[in-house]
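Friendly challenge for the regulars: who can give me the structure tokens for this chain first? No prize, just bragging rights.
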Amino acid sequence: MLVNQKVLEKLIKLLPFFILLFCCEESNKEQKQQLNTKTKVINYSELNLESVYKIKNYNQIDNWINYIELSEFIEQLNLNDFSSVTDNKKYLIRFFNVIKNSIPSEINKPEIKSRLTVIETDFLRFESMISNYEINDKMKVKMVKKINNSFSNLNFQIDKLTEKQEITPQ
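First reply, four minutes later:
Bragging rights claimed.
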């Protein structure tokens, strides 16, 4: 009985230590959870947004200044910078009118104009969502991916059109 009493006394002496340890650990878990929810930042570079199809066949793309500007807009979105889109509807409409009217003659075809219209629609939709609503990060990612996909389709179409013209010159 004496041995049990000694063990019990030691346990009673250690009890405050265990209670303190348990409470501190719970507090740390809560703090980490609060930190994670407060600082939930999307790292867009980890979302495979860099997988945008790049033009391979059309060498004159560097001369199309508006295309370069569009590419820079999309790059900004991929870097989580929405300043070029937020509350900028008039500018976006004007920009897409200019880009559609500045398509180089070799690729000025309905296929290219339609792809640009799709990109314009995606941008305007995203602008409306960002400017008028509090959208969650999941929706932002979805829209940025959609814009990247549309841009990839434009680039792919430019390559296909260039290939076709090389095969059957006009």
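The chain has two domains: 1-40, 50-167. Residues 2-38 form the longest helix (37 residues). Your move, everyone else.
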